[in-house]
Amino acid sequence: MKRKALLAAMASMMVLASACGQSTEEAPKNGTGSAGSDQMQGEIVMWHSFTQGARNDFMKEAVDAFMAKHPGVKIKIETFAWPEFYTKWTTGLMAGQVPDVSTALPNHVVEMLDADALVPLNDVIDKIGRSRFYEAPLKEGTVEGKNYSIPLYSHAQVMWYRKDLLKQANLEVPKT
What we know:
Blueprint: H1 2-18, E1 42-48, H2 53-69, E2 73-79, H3 82-95, E3 101-102, H4 106-114, H5 122-128, H6 135-140, E4 142-143, E5 146-147, H7 163-168
Parallel strand pairs: 1-2, 1-3
Antiparallel strand pairs: 4-5
């Protein structure tokens, strides 16, 4: 149970630091997630795919800040490029050697669920505040009311058009 609480605390810290722009101040203060008992202790292996300079640096800084606040916790980061990342997960699942915490694409979450490699994170999401997340990304990692992933970030999808080309073709911007 302590391991799950430690992993939940780490997941909470990563989400708070990355997605919400908050500090690690809101992370649980011990292995049980409640104030007043023993300090968190343990080792966590974390895989992520943020090879880009600023993102990779941010992940390292967030982990370092968490470990500074919780000296009994040691986090080992392993970084893989996206093509390598998927292969690492696939072979890791077959070998039974997967990380404690990881980033993933939504379709990878489905495969990890099929392999029974994930635990529900409803309690972590509720502690952070479910209303802080958009509903659609939460639903992507939800099965039978259980959340198996926490949105880390999203990309805005936009459409743009050139008025001059539409006018030249005698067309209007579609309304639907």
